[in-house]
Amino acid sequence: MERKEIVKRVNEILADEYEVDESTIENEANIREVLPIDSLSIVDLVALVQSEYKVTIPMTDLPKLKTFNDLYEYIYTHLPADTTA
Amino acid sequence: MNRVVITGMGIWSCLGISLDEVRKSLYEGKSGIVFSQERKDAGFRSALVGNVPKANLKGILSRNERQPMPEEAQYAYLATKQALEQAQLDDDYLIKHDVGIIYGNDSVAEATMTALDKFRNMKSSVACGSGAIFQSMNSTITMNLACLFHLRGINLTASAACASGSQSIGLAALLIRNGLQECVVCGGAEENNMYGIASFDGIQSFSIREDEPTKASRPFDRDRDGLVPSGGAATVIVESYEHAMRRGAPILAEVLGWGFSGNGDHISTPNVTGPAQSLTMCIKEANINLSEIGYVNAHATSTRIGDKREAEAISSIFGDYRVPVTSTKSQTGHEMWMAGASEVIYSMLMMKNGFIAGNINFENPDETTALLNIIPETRKTYFDIFLSNSFGFGGTNSTLIIKNL
Question: What is the ipTM of this complex?
């Protein structure tokens, strides 16, 4: 799977789940400023990534994911072997 | 002891999603029952159901506020918004005062199933999502509404099967009468999806008159063959008379009495003595003569044994006085956890608008239901006091007596 595919799909599913305009999701934008994420709803981001990519983000890694770019990169580098391009 | 009054009502049901729509449906004898192909295809023995409009809270509540809300909590939110508005209880007042909530609910099946399906499929608890725990607790309605409406008094769910809604009003009245609360949001809600009642269908309790959906729910009729499930939500605002006067709120009626009892025997088959005890207790607390009761809204669900036993109980209490009786479930089907509250609202709408909605589909009595004065078609008449029965599995019984003001 190519990285740009991940960017496109992640933006689509996050915009849909968190009910924000997809155009507000930019590479260097802060995830927590763009999406209505609090201590509970962050769980839905983890669940979405897990469901879509079989990538489990441990809660201890969440603070490292500040921008959307961090998230794309995390998914790309943790993809199960059989889904990597 | 404080007098307890009703100052607001709200409804989301198969007869309408506003008090005015429901009043009209009641008067016109409209049935809210339809056939569901989805249920038939899924394996239901009886695919009849109340046609309750889905709630859409997008644009009303934020995404994060909606996450913890299952279907029934969404209905309850919309009914409660109406009720608070009628009672003239705005956000500012609710934030500054200790208004409580006691709401009837006794299942969260679809929400629980959906979350656990995700858990089992993904083998991950995170897959359940952030709202799942709050959606799949029986107290989901009270926890959601208390947060959304800033309710800071008692916060309690009444789970008493099909008497839940009625028990919620009775409990609130008890607290207010004794000065422990001044104002309580009460009601009942019922999920209307097929998962909530699939197992109920499995015990052969539902009518199989699928070729005539609007004739399937026929309480007290000789040819009744089971109930029809429905759902939605109904909210009633109760408060002390002094509190309502102090606020300048519109006082609609007074809760004169609450009676309750347990049958203490069979889990699903009702008896006569339990319900009769509930009626007796309620009438005693209301401190009125039987002849002052102008209308009885029966629990009668359209099952053979349940309607018979209730007819015997009402008849044994009222004796020679032929009080008018109907079951609004003839129009709505059985709204279960919601029914005790919705039927108070249906009766209130009749009392306030000078009619008794006919017990539709009552064509012939059987030898027991003939003991009652069942009104088959809408009758224009005035009454100032009504009695409402609600009974549930496990033999839980609740009766309310309410007076026009």
Answer: 0.92
